[in-house]
Design a protein that fits this description.
The protein is built from no helices and 9 strands. It is mainly beta. The chain has one domain. A 5-stranded mixed beta sheet has the order 1-3-4-5-6, with no helix packed on it. A 4-stranded antiparallel beta sheet has the order 2-9-8-7, with no helix packed on it. The chain is globular, with a radius of gyration of 11 Å.
């Protein structure tokens, strides 16, 4: 399992990897068929479900970030 941080952005993570942001958010996902269930702050339920080529923006620690589902089994995490 790999862990990334804000200095690694933009980064494409696999389902067993995660990104820890300075504001305390930990971004990870689980595949749900073609969709990606995205978890952002350690919740047990996904914040959003993204289908390939769809994105979601959120704020953490006063900064804005974007996650985007890919057609591969990856999630792109970057600044918004």
């Amino acid at each position: 399992m790999s862990e990334y941080k804000e200095s690694d952005l933009p980064v494409a993570i696999n389902h067993e990897e995660f990104v820890t942001l300075p504001g305390g958010a930990c971004v990870r996902f689980e595949s749900n068929g073609e969709a990606k269930d995205v978890f952002i702050r350690g919740e047990f339920t996904p914040v959003v479900q993204l289908f390939p080529d769809c994105d979601y923006e959120f704020e953490d620690g006063g900064k804005r970030y974007r996650v985007k589902a890919t057609f591969e089994d990856k999630l792109l995490v970057d600044f918004a």
